[in-house]
Amino acid sequence: MSTFTIFLALIVVVAFLLIVVVMVQNPKGGGLSSSFGGGGTQQLGGVKKTTDFLDKSTWTLATLLLVLILLSNVAINRGSENVDSKALDPDAAAAQPLPAVPEDNAATTLPEASTATDSAQ
C-alpha cells in the first residue's frame, strides 16, 4: 500500500466526517433574519456547549482536510523522469514517426455514386 493510497483513504474519511458534522449543526440564522428578532432563539436549552464543539470540529476537520490534500500532492508517485513536459523533451519528438502517406491514390478515392438512370439501363 503506497503512501498516496493512505492519504487518499484519510481524505475520504475526513471528508465524510466533515459532511456529517456540517449536517448535524443547526443553521446559524445570520444575515437579515437575525436583525429582525430571530437571532436569540438558537441559544435556548443550554446548547451553547454543543454548538461550540460542532463549530470547533468543523474548523478542525476542514483544516485537516486541507493539510491532507496538500500532503498527498507530495506523496504522488511521479516516476523517475525529470522531464516536466513531453513537448520540452527533444528525444520524445524524434521518437514519433510521421504518418505514412499511401502511394496508391486510387485506393484512397471514393467510388463514384451511380445515378438512377444508370440502374435503369
Topology:
Blueprint (H helix, E strand, L loop, with lengths): L2 H22 L7 H7 L9 H28 L14 H6 L9 H4 L7 H5 L1
Helix pairs in contact: 1-3
Please tell me about this protein's structure.
Helix 1 (3-24) runs antiparallel to helix 3 (48-75). With 121 residues, the chain is an all-alpha fold. It has a domain at 14-26 and 47-77. Helices cover 60% and strands 0% of the residues. It is elongated. The model is unreliable at 31-35 (pLDDT under 50). The longest helix has 28 residues, at 48-75. The chain is built from six helices and no strands.
N-to-C order of helices and strands:
HHHHHH
Biggest sheet descriptor:
none
* Number of DSSP E strands: 0
- The number of helical segments is 6
- Rounded to an integer in angstroms, the radius of gyration calculated over CA atoms is 32 Å
Tell me the helix content: 55-70%
Low-confidence stretches: 31-35
Q: Look at the structure and give the mean pLDDT.
A: 73
Strand fraction equals under 5%
Termini distance? 75 Å
Shape: elongated
Q: Which structural category do the helix and sheet elements fall into?
A: mainly alpha
Transmembrane segments: 6-24, 58-76
InterPro entries: SecG
Function: Involved in protein export. Participates in an early event of protein translocation.
Biased composition (Polar residues): 106-121
